[in-house]
Amino acid sequence: MAKPEELVFAPLGGVGEIGMNLSIYGLGSRQQRAWMAVDLGVSFGDEEHLPGIDLIMPDISFLEKERKNLMGLVLTHAHEDHFGAIIDLWPKLKCPIYATQFSAALFEAKLAAERNAPKIPVTVVPSGGRVDIGPFNVEFIPVAHSIPESHALAIHTTAGIVLHTGDWKIDPTPIIGRPTDEKRLRELGDEGVLALIGDSTNAVRDGRSPSEAEVARTITELVKAAKGRVAVTTFASNVARLKAVADAARAADREVVVVGRAMERVSQVARETGYFDGVQNFRSTDVYGHLPHDKVLALCTGSQGEARAALARIANDDHPEITLNRGDCVIFSSRTIPGNEKAVGSIINNLVLQGVEVITDRDHLVHVSGHPRRDELRDMISWVRPQLLIPVHGEALHLHEHAKLARAAGVPRVLVIRNGDLVKLGPGDPGIIGEVPSGRLYKDGTILEDSKSRAVVERRRMAFSGCAFVAIAMTEQGELADDPEVDLVGIPEKTREGEPFDDLVFDAVVSTIEGLPKARRRDADALGESVRRAVRAVINEHWGKKPPCLVHVLTV
């Protein structure tokens, strides 16, 4: 009798963190498995810890090695943390991609906006439809979330059914798109679900997430009450929120001016795919200044404090076409993602200093999360009744709380895992059976580098303590041919006592050279290392920091 095929799962990103989602499923024997990937997203760089790094992506070296066995990549939805790495990483994989219409259209628009982007075909699957991907039969089950056409994936295999929830919530009135398909999820529970791989983002929050319809009502009231200009900032991908803002503007007899490329792109795709049927046409920024103050609403990018986005430029009063004045109003219809508080706070402070009224979710219900709170997690478990639950899409605390809730709800087996853990889902007892390579890639300008990249490590050190550059010209006899050149970058000009650092370093270089035996002076490497140590030591003595020091020795 043939041995049953083993079904395995491994997260390569998105576990122990929020963002950079990439999950893989394997079916077959330990020697030969067919693989399927779910999502391929990014997270965003932090200027404090990763200066110059815009995007962080999952390490796909394992999938590159298994490329001939990789049957396809399936997208749950079109948020950047789920599909933002495809353009950079797909050329290494060249596997088929499967997505529903809106995700495919938004991806196509993103490709069109990229310079020299590769041609990447996407197979469109209908919402609620099924597709065979190698030995996996994948069913796209509609779920509510903060972007159209989010789907949980029911992965049907010979070893059983796995429900990969993607990002979801329960919202009976989502404004755009279909509510979470409770009926189909209950049917899957009746068929028997081997494992639930579930979103943990809001597992620490009690109760239920409010509905998009409630946010729409609040925004309408606020826009109607406003006397001057109104600007609303939100996540560009939240098409339901964009529609709610447009409806509020119409109710208040205001024109909508779209400000920011991402907002323009999503609005265009929403119209093309029918999600903006009945929504008035938006106006371009060049008409903004010609409209009466009480007849305009600016829909802006920049809710997360992005320095180059529309709202930051408006707050700094350097946007070429959009200005706000005393008595105008800005609504932040968004939640600040952890790590962005300082940037968002800076924008709010700048607006307040200009006399602009700022409204956030601290004051009114102007934003709701797209992720399930604890009561919704309990509902999903009761509908699906999985044999095993694995929390994903969350930091350590979120995973822990989701696991605790699942155990209390009676799930027979619960596994908390890390990126790179290879988990046997079935048949038989589930558990961690190994490890696959996982890690991070940094998008540095147009180059992809791994997390141990010398450039990234050195740039972090330079951001902390600057850099010292020393050029020395020596004769073949081991004598100085000319005065050393010293250039200090990012280092204070003077010590606490008021002595110029340039002079201190110059003196340290000269005295170090003069104190070396002639033979050592004629050895460029030994001379350079001695000078490097002396420069770092003298700067540390007077500043308390040891900057990198680059010494160039030239023999003349």
TrEMBL record:
<dbReference type="InterPro" id="IPR001279">
    <property type="entry name" value="Metallo-B-lactamas"/>
</dbReference>
<keyword id="KW-0269">Exonuclease</keyword>
<keyword id="KW-0862">Zinc</keyword>
<dbReference type="GO" id="GO:0016787">
    <property type="term" value="F:hydrolase activity"/>
</dbReference>
<dbReference type="InterPro" id="IPR011108">
    <property type="entry name" value="RMMBL"/>
</dbReference>
<feature type="domain" description="Metallo-beta-lactamase">
    <location>
        <begin position="21"/>
        <end position="219"/>
    </location>
</feature>
<dbReference type="InterPro" id="IPR004613">
    <property type="entry name" value="RNase_J"/>
</dbReference>
<dbReference type="InterPro" id="IPR036866">
    <property type="entry name" value="RibonucZ/Hydroxyglut_hydro"/>
</dbReference>
<keyword id="KW-0694">RNA-binding</keyword>
<keyword id="KW-0479">Metal-binding</keyword>
<dbReference type="Pfam" id="PF07521">
    <property type="entry name" value="RMMBL"/>
</dbReference>
<dbReference type="Pfam" id="PF22505">
    <property type="entry name" value="RNase_J_b_CASP"/>
</dbReference>
<keyword id="KW-0378">Hydrolase</keyword>
<keyword id="KW-0540">Nuclease</keyword>
<protein>
    <submittedName>
        <fullName>Ribonuclease J</fullName>
        <ecNumber>3.1.-.-</ecNumber>
    </submittedName>
</protein>
<dbReference type="InterPro" id="IPR041636">
    <property type="entry name" value="RNase_J_C"/>
</dbReference>
<dbReference type="Pfam" id="PF17770">
    <property type="entry name" value="RNase_J_C"/>
</dbReference>
<dbReference type="InterPro" id="IPR055132">
    <property type="entry name" value="RNase_J_b_CASP"/>
</dbReference>
<keyword id="KW-0963">Cytoplasm</keyword>
<dbReference type="Pfam" id="PF12706">
    <property type="entry name" value="Lactamase_B_2"/>
</dbReference>
<dbReference type="InterPro" id="IPR042173">
    <property type="entry name" value="RNase_J_2"/>
</dbReference>
